Amino acid sequence: MNHRLRGVSRFAIMLALASPAAAIAGTITGTVSDGTGTRALQSTQLRIVETGHIAEAGRDGSYRFPDMAPGTYTIEARYTGADPVRTTVVVPASGDVDADIRIGSDIDSSIIVVGQLANQASALSRQRAADGVESVLTRDAIGQFPDQNVAESLRRLPGVNILNDQGEGRFVSVRGLDPELNAASVNGARLPAPESDVRSVALDVVPSELIESIEVKKSLTPDMDADTIGASIEINTTSAFDRKKDLYSAKVEGSYNDYANTVTPKGSVDFSTRLTDRFGISGGLSYYKRRFETDNIEASDWTSSDDGIDYAETLEYRDYDVARKRIGATLNMDWMPSDTTKLYARGIYNQFDDHEYRRRLTFVLDEQPASGDADSANFTDEDGRIEVRRDLKDRFERQRIKSLVLGGTTETGPWKLIYSGSWSESSEKEAGSIDPIRWRARFDGDGVDVNFNYADPRIPTFDVTSGADLFNDPSEYAFNRVEQTILSDSRDREYAIKGDIARAFATDSGTFTVQAGMKARWRKKSYDFNMNYYDKSNLDLADVLGDQTYRLANIGPVPAKGAASDYFYANQSAFRLDPVASEYESAAADYDAKEDVLATYLMGRWDSETLRLIGGIRMEQTRNVLRGNLVDTDGDENSITPNIFTKHYTDWLPSLTARLEPSQGLVFRAAGYKSLVRPKLSQLAPRFLRDEDGAAEFGNPDLKPFRAWNLDASAEWYFSRNGALTAGLFWKSIKNYTAQIRDFDNGSYNGVAYSEASYFVNGDTAKVKGVELSFSQVLNFLPSPLDGLLVNLNYSYTDAKAKITSYDGDDNAYLRTIGLPNASKHTANAVLGYEKGPLSLRAAGTYRSKYLDEVGDAPDTDRIVDNHFQLDLSAKYKVLPGVRLFADWVNVNNAKYFAYQNFNGNKRLLQFEEYNWTVKFGMAVNF
């Protein structure tokens, strides 16, 4: 395969050298900025009127027209939100010429660089100039971003759905696809995942104050990494060359959650400065501490009694008290050692601390109810045992994401070189957590009766109708167990180097560019888990009592949040260790996986005044080394055998992208390409577990990557200075979709015999199709004061289906059609803004329909997350030049989380959470 790679690269260079070139006289270069000379206007479209040659301004505003014959030319520059500008340049018989362009006057150009209008103008400009289908979010010239973190900001884009955790947006689903099918990068470096069992990265760890833009690229070209089916989410931090003038800003903020009833701090500083004309530094620091509370109810194992009464065998009432702290920092350096070369170094550090207390009341019902109806079930301990558990989780975990990218570009005449090297590392570490410490009471013939009311499918209630004195007596609850996390250490790191070479050929009708490149990535993901399991102690619940903060029911008596952990660590010798269970759980989780990817591509690009074509082929070669353990136990001792597997495969990935602009403001796009997503490393890891009954769980090192053919088409109409209407279609055929299999018969897997087993296999082909619509408009044609209004609307429809193996009541397998997990059919966003004078207001509503969250053994055990609508309000007021007061009201309508299953035709609770609203307020200063 290495011979093939060298052959492709040699072919590209030979083609570039052998092709006929136009007569080379000189190159037109320059930069584009706003009228005040404050900010570079990235994605400004430039056109030479006489020849039709086109160019696009880079992030520093720079542009180039190579191979221009001597003569006088008119350059037209267009940027969304501003009138077009023309300038005249004269190319001499030999040598180059510079032509810097300013758009807008020094009086009114602030409208395209500051505020909501600037955010919209920049996003539309980049979307319009893009090669393929993409959506963009940007900061303005004074560092303002629409939302608090990357995930929350992405919620506003067409086809994007955010999956929440404890009421905060964390994981990003694009076009209804699982977040695992996206890829995220910062400054061009792929972000590895801190968690041990996923590839996707929770993007709430990246503060918005530290980034310049987010690009969601929904179609691929050959020069891009091919490891995405949903979208490539590219996060760019700031650069001193983004601006023409220095910027220093600071923000101080308070955050108040209605449930937590406390104010927590947030602050940030941000700077960008050019120390010389050729060297600049930018960066920032962000700190955010948030306290909040969550009221939660969860149920599992819904079943029917012999009398036809539906009930949950396990019902939990959970009280969460959470403190989260985020620290983020960036430092970026840019240097132009010559007129032809730009070099950069970009570093980012993010830390996310999560300290969670969870008090929980659990009912475990082993016997059928004595009576009941469609909305209730009555249990008595005269018919069988009613087990009641009360426990506490005291967990602290820390996630870190670090990345460093060194790179540059060299442009000389028609040649362009792009090169970079990067290192990224993510980690999640937990040490010393108690998860959980549990007490329990088993009422059997003690006169305890409990009635459960399911009339409200979201909030089932309970009533102790007999024996309440025993139920509420803390001395009745004896110590059951404690699980201590000695170490939970997940690490994911990647090194990469890449190089691209391009050669442009100017012709009378346009420019043809040949480009080739190579990239190598070396990734290692590991997980080390060590825990102790204690099963005996004299610690009673009455010794560590606390006060509940739960609002949905009375779940007392509850343990105090810190008392149980403090007692355990002060008296650890008084707890009896179960060494067999501790060793089994520790060894079963460990794994180590290496993934090396070597890629090369060859691409051709044609640019004319109306047409852009990009086509080529990419090759990616993947090699895995996978390590895990076969852990066997008979209950008295464990057998641990190391496993190692290796695998490699090669993918050839063609693509073709077309962009047509037949008239000014009307853009059509079409793209067809092949891509892949490699399986989760945690699913590939050869971790084989078998208990004393022969029941087994397996990792599958033979899993194949998802491979997809993708088609995209869109039409975009930029009908005003700051308005656009877009419509798009997409279709995907995904082969080797992963599904979980449960085998209830005796068998063997990789030589390991079992009585029943659970493992992942590649399933049938999944089909995805859908529509995306969006509308953006500044309503400045309305009479004052309504001329400050602006509106953003978008809607997406996704139809995503696959066939999987399920089981009937007799454990017989059959195929059924499902919607893909995390795929909402309908997502919509509406933003109404107002900006005039010193006042800026915004109301943002986000809706997504229900989606399949987890696939069960049968349709009535599928986990479904209910639809969600959230309203957020924000306001800013400029009190002095460079000084703004602001306030954000998040989750105004107290949107809740509800997951259920359709058991026996009724919605039956699996999980319910509510968090209430949060208000953020503060002051921002820039100079």
Question: What can be said about this structure in brief?
Answer:
The protein has 927 residues and is mainly beta.
How can the largest sheet be summarized? Answer: 33 strands, mixed
SSE-based structural type = mainly beta
Mean pLDDT: 89
The percentage helix is under 10%
Beta-strand content bin = over 45%
Number of strands: 56
Q: Flag low-confidence runs.
A: 1-23, 107-111
Quick one: overall form? globular
Give me the number of helical elements: 7
- Amino-to-carboxy terminus distance: 55 Å
Radius of gyration from the alpha-carbon trace, in angstroms: 30 Å
Fill in the keyword field for this structure.
single chain; 927 residues; mainly beta; 33-stranded mixed beta sheet; five-stranded mixed beta sheet; 7% helix; disordered N terminus
